[in-house]
Specification:
Low-confidence stretches of chain A: 1-11
Structural class of chain A: alpha+beta
Radius of gyration of chain B: 18 Å
InterPro entries (chain B): cNMP-bd_dom, cNMP-bd_dom_sf, Env_Response_Regulators, HTH_CRP, RmlC-like_jellyroll, WH-like_DNA-bd_sf, WH_DNA-bd_sf
CATH class of the largest domain in chain B: Mainly Alpha
Number of domains of chain B: 2
Helix content of chain B: 40-55%
Protein name (chain B): Crp/Fnr family transcriptional regulator
Strand order of the largest sheet of chain A: 1-2
Strand order of the largest sheet of chain B: 6-7-9-8
Shape of chain A: globular
Order of helices and strands of chain A: EHEEHE
Largest sheet of chain A: 2 strands, antiparallel
Domain Cyclic nucleotide-binding (chain B): 1-59
Domain HTH crp-type (chain B): 90-163
GO molecular function (chain B): DNA binding; DNA-binding transcription factor activity
Strand content of chain B: 15-25%
Order of helices and strands of chain B: EEEEEHHHEEHHEEH
Strand content of chain A: 25-35%
Radius of gyration of chain A: 12 Å
Oligomer: heterodimer
Low-confidence stretches of chain B: none
Chain lengths: 60, 181
């Protein structure tokens, strides 16, 4: 991951992910960490995408 | 967040635009160690990251999670197949018409007799979605404006004749969850 990624506290932000039920999300949230991405400053490379699954929450 | 590829010549091709609640970095994880695209944040956002090594045992343990993951993965595959069909079967005109429909489904705001696309989009950016130059997009949009299919003001596109666009790309009336950016 690029160094510009800022690690934040792991909060339960993804309950509205429309693919997963809340109980399923709770299962994976325990193993998940969370980052904030600033517009246009964050790039995930192909290597990042091979190794990780990403769940997206847009702030606004 | 956009998933995109860049050719050796520096030409960008946007594979998909992701919004809140979407996921990426998925299917390849179980079959290969190669992923064909990069991802870039377009707006401020927060992202949950789970390493596939941690995800796999969870899928083994939680059948509900595994089924939901499979459902999502199937939906993404269907979306990709539909997009591929739209971009390849009816030339560049079909590709831009289908992209306009997708934009309307993802960012459209229904008005009396039209659909306003609330995402400001440059012609060059549209070209990135269909693998065309800005000049080609300019020409195609000019034709659509002349036929009063669309209008464009202040960088915002408005669709006046959705049926025309659907006809041009032989629309199969896929659900909105599939026909999206």
């Amino acid at each position: 991951m690029k160094k510009r990624v800022e690690l934040t506290k792991n909060r339960k932000l993804f309950h509205h992910t429309h693919f997963f039920t809340e109980s399923s999300l709770r299962t994976i949230e325990a193993a998940m960490r969370q980052v904030s991405a600033k517009a246009t400053q964050m790039i995930f490379t192909k290597e990042d995408l091979v190794e990780n699954l990403f769940l997206l929450k847009v702030e606004k | 967040m956009k998933l995109y590829k860049v050719t050796k010549e520096g030409k960008e091709f946007v594979l998909t635009i992701l919004s809140s609640g979407d996921m990426f970095g998925e299917a390849i994880s179980f079959t290969s160690n190669y992923y064909a695209a990069d991802a870039k944040a377009l707006t401020d956002c927060e992202i949950g990251i789970i390493n596939h090594k941690k995800l796999r045992p969870l899928l083994h343990q939680d059948a509900v999670l595994a089924m939901e993951f499979l459902r999502w993965s199937s939906l993404m595959e269907r979306t990709t197949n539909a997009k591929l069909r739209d971009l390849t079967h009816h030339g560049k005109k079909g590709a831009i018409c289908s992209t306009l429909i997708r934009l309307a489904n993802s960012y459209g705001e229904k008005k009396d007799s039209s659909i306003l696309i609330t995402k400001k989009i440059k012609n060059g950016e549209l070209g990135h979605y269909i693998g065309s130059s800005r000049e080609s997009v300019n020409r195609m949009l000019a034709d659509l404006k002349k036929d009063r299919v669309i209008s464009q003001e202040g960088g915002y596109l408005e669709i006046h004749d959705l049926d025309y666009l659907k006809l041009a790309c032989d629309c199969e009336e896929c659900p909105i969850g599939v026909c999206r950016m």
